[in-house]
User: Fold DUF3445 domain-containing protein from uncultured Thermomicrobiales bacterium.
Amino acid sequence: MLPHFPFDSDVYAMTMNARALAIDRLIEVEPRRYEGELAEKAAILASDYRYYFQAPGDTEAHAWEAIALLLPNMARHYPQYFALRTEGARWHWANRLLDTEAWLKLGESASLPLPPLDWLGRQVQEDLLIMAEDAAGGTPLVAGHLCFAAGWCLDDKLGRSFLAIHDPVPIFADRVGRSADLLMQRLKPDHPTGRVGWSITTSPELNRAPAVTDGRRDEGPTIDALNAGERCYLRLERQTFSRLPRTRGVLFTIHTSLTPLAGVLAEDAPARARRVAAVLRTMPAPLLRYKGIDRFQAPLLAYLDAQAAGDEATTGDALR
Assistant:
């Protein structure tokens, strides 16, 4: 089942599309995928720990604030999967999906078997990033637990400002750069915000970091109007931004999911097919190249057009 359908217009528009999280659910849990994705995270971290996890010592307080924010949130919204019992600074955490439990003392890293941000990242399907306030009022990236990135890595972005991180994205600076930066700076504690980003890829891999993809290219010639529904995937990123009240940092979570395009169209296929095709036709060429969609755009559009036209023809026959 598609968690979000991100297309709400027939015309492509680059916007932050940030919305207040009405129910304050910072983490999404997909029970069928949870254990497998956590195992995949563990394997990725074992392959090159520093590449996928970096948290300098001066970010430890931010990591503990992230723990203090997320664990109660998860237990409140998913009591069937998680339980938290607190005795002052001493907390007992039970993860029923992994069948694990832990006693931790807030602020004491010796109470955990791993650095606090790494331990937290292994409780959630999300990637976790921490941004901090600097003297100039910016929000540079200072720490991250990043296993499922799409085309970037911590080595490339750590220490860079929010705007600098997005330098490679075509038209970002002109269209939404300033408003996005202001959103980050103006976040208030207890008022998280979120958005959903998207792309279309021919890879079923969650981990698309440069170390994995360098020298490889998404398929183009092997995609056609008949197989695009199964071989093209809608890649969604549900992102949340939360102000950490004590350190004044920002916790940035990214929940990545992949759904074959045929699954995306399973509900209301003709309308969705027309909508996705319209958005792709109005996306600026530099963005199509940046996302890699240009390599298979033609057969993808042929597939989408066929899905829309085929349903319309059936409807027309039924009315005759």
Q: What stands out?
A: The first strand starts at residue 19 and ends at 20. Confidence is low (pLDDT under 50) at residues 312-320.
